[in-house]
């Protein structure tokens, strides 16, 4: 319907609303941030005027919208254009619009050879970085109950606070509801604690392709016969327990998450609620690193110590017998060359080995 008001305010009637600041992603990706070289802008084929009212008509109304998307044999989008057909419509009348998308294969397209970059190795988590979770197949920051205005609980997702690695936190709020249904009441509290959907897994490390570990969840035990009169099993506290450890070389250890557990502590409460409930949530990080023993601890029997080359005696003999030349047996020894050369360079000693 084209009215006197919608003629100039309805974006469906204006051409610019179909392509302004719009780009297509060249290939499917799950990345949270898309690089500019992976975007293809939608290019208009002309400069169309905006709708205007004149003599009981709405001029320059979009009648047809035609997208043309070009792609390579590998399925990568290369460019996109858009074309329109405009018409003049009497005010207070209906207009029938047609939208179409055409895909065109570019057989001649030869992409530039690009070097294959290996996937970067997994990188340990930095202290204070956000813990990432897999929620409905999408990587998102793990969040929990945050600070709310006036201390009242809110199911607004923007009120949730991200869980930061190694940061132990505790927060709380007061919850009120007039709901007289146990299931609905319990769902409201779950959403306040962790959002609308529980995470399936959390990332063990950071990077574009992190390793994942499963989240163990201990929910409230529900009685099938529960009712508001007998009491509802409601979660009043939420505990996130994350186990982590340092792995790799001692000089450059990497922080990895080994596992996580969501623990809800529940209580039987009658509804509707006669007074507000106090909800608390905390996140705890437990380090389980096992460090190796120091390599230079108690001396072992098989260790060899350097000889004292200033005293030539039986302790310096290497056990070899020299029988060449004369018939007499001579015992030879080996001196430590490095200390002798070092002292010689410093000019402290002179020696002659014959």
UniProtKB/TrEMBL annotation:
Tectonic-1-3 domain boundaries: 128-287
Residue intervals passing through the bilayer: none
Database matches in Pfam families: TCTN_DUF1619 (PF07773)
InterPro entries: TCTN1-3, TCTN1-3_dom
UniProt GO BP: cilium assembly; smoothened signaling pathway
PANTHER family named among the record's database cross-references: TECTONIC FAMILY MEMBER, TECTONIC-3
UniProt subunit comment: Part of the tectonic-like complex (also named B9 complex).
Name of the molecule in the record: Tectonic-3
Organism, scientific name: Poecilia reticulata
């Amino acid at each position: 319907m084209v009215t006197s008001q919608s003629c100039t305010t309805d974006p469906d009637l204006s051409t610019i609303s179909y392509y302004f600041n719009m780009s297509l992603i060249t290939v499917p990706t799950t990345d949270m941030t898309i690089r500019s070289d992976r975007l293809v802008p939608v290019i208009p084929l002309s400069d169309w005027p905006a709708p205007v009212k004149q003599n009981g008509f709405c001029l320059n109304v979009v009648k047809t919208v035609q997208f043309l998307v070009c792609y390579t044999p590998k399925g990568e989008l290369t460019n996109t254009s858009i074309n329109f057909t405009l018409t003049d419509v009497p005010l207070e009348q209906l207009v029938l619009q047609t939208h179409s998308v055409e895909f065109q294969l570019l057989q001649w397209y030869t992409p530039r050879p690009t070097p294959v970059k290996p996937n970067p190795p997994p990188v340990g988590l930095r202290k204070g970085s956000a813990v990432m979770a897999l929620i409905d197949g999408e990587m998102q920051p793990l969040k929990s109950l945050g600070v709310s205005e006036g201390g009242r609980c809110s199911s607004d997702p923007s009120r949730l606070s991200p869980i930061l690695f190694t940061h132990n936190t505790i927060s709380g709020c007061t919850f009120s509801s007039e709901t007289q249904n146990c299931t609905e009441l319990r769902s409201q509290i779950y959403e306040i604690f962790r959002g609308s959907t529980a995470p399936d897994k959390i990332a063990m490390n950071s990077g574009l392709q992190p390793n994942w570990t499963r989240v163990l969840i201990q929910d409230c035990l529900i009685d099938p016969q529960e009712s508001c009169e007998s009491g509802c099993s409601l979660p009043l506290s939420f505990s996130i327990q994350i186990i982590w450890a340092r792995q790799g070389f001692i000089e450059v250890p990497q922080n990895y998450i080994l596992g996580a557990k969501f623990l809800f502590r529940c209580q039987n409460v009658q509804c509707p609620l006669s007074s507000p409930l106090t909800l608390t949530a905390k996140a705890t990080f437990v380090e389980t690193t096992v460090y190796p023993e120091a390599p230079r601890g108690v001396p072992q029997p098989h260790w060899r110590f350097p000889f004292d080359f200033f005293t030539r005696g039986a302790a310096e003999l290497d056990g070899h017998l020299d029988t060449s030349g004369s018939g007499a047996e001579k015992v030879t020894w080996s001196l430590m060359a490095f200390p002798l050369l070092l002292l010689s360079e410093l000019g402290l000693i002179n020696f002659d080995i014959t």
